[in-house]
Amino acid sequence: MKIAQVESFHIVADREVHAAAGAVGRRQAGTEPGVRALDYNTGRHLCAYPTIDQTLLVRLTSDDGLEGWGEAHSPPVPGVAKAVIADLFAPLLLGQDPLAIEVLWDHLYASMRLRGHGSGFMLEALAAIDIALWDLVGKALGQPVYQLLGGPFRTRIPCYTGLPGETVEERVANAKQYVAMGFTAMKTGTALGDTSGALAEVGAVVEAVEGQATVLVDAHGAYDARTAIPAGRELERMGVGWLEDPLPPEDLDGYAALCDALDMPIASGETECTRWQFNEKLRRGGADIILPDICRAGGISEGRKIAQVADLFNVPWCAHVSMGSAIHVAAALHLAAATPNFLICEYRGPLRPNPLGDVLLQEPIHYADGHLQVPPGPGLGITFDDDALAARSLDLYTPVG
What we know:
16% strand, alpha/beta, TIM Barrel, globular, Enolase-like, domain 1, 2 domains, ten-stranded mixed sheet, 401 residues
């Protein structure tokens, strides 16, 4: 079996601008409809998002007609990963044995090592190829990915969801609805800018679900070394489950000091892409929980190594899955099943459904009682609805065969 074709598809879905996890965004002026950015008011820690849901899917096809699917986490500029895959990775992959996943990962990563491209867009593109290889090999061998990774520690994966809502009243109401749906953990955010008011709003959500669910808080980099510790102590007093990304990601010393100062776990890691980056953060004591994004952090292969590095430090990992397609969810679930130090998976719940999620599949990924079921079929265990995928693709998409 050889790799015969490497394709990528830019898929999109229109949506309204939502306040994800309670963070309030604003639309930037002067940009075209559909690609306007959200600018979180966090001083220097800015983050741009499009006002459409979009990602880049990759399909590898073997010379015997099997196909494997992957995804590059690319909410803003999927064209970058698309170019990396077409111009750099495809020529290195064609004619290769897809069973040699580890060898191919290392060759692709090394292809730009001397030029300093060991993170960011490069690793997002590599993640897509890696996930597609695991999916293809699983189908070739008739086994789910979690079996190829050594077998499952669990197949029901605990999950939490982000709380939508423009006001604290909406978030409180949504939190109560999620409790009724079986969620025992949910995430809100600090309304960026007025951090004192934001803490009071977090307290209202915590009080609304006290004794029924744990509230997690994503700070989106809103704090600095001066403000993070007192804010963290107040959240700790409320009983918040973790404080996520309170500082800019480069401030490793600040993260270590914050972990030292607080009993409440400090969670971070969606910005790190490799085992080396996570090792440095953990070696310096800069995280109590890590949050790698499987479609950004080099795919399933590198994700497993990141989980193993975290295990050396007795640190659990959680799957960061805030944006992306059903592939993103499925890949995270398979890795979660096969690693001992997994804690919980992020999931866009039914009050803010993923427009590129179950709608693309012939069979949805099953949710019940605060858990997601790992898809049990070969490979990633999911099958696209070709019509649904074609309707959302900006590239020419045709099913294989």
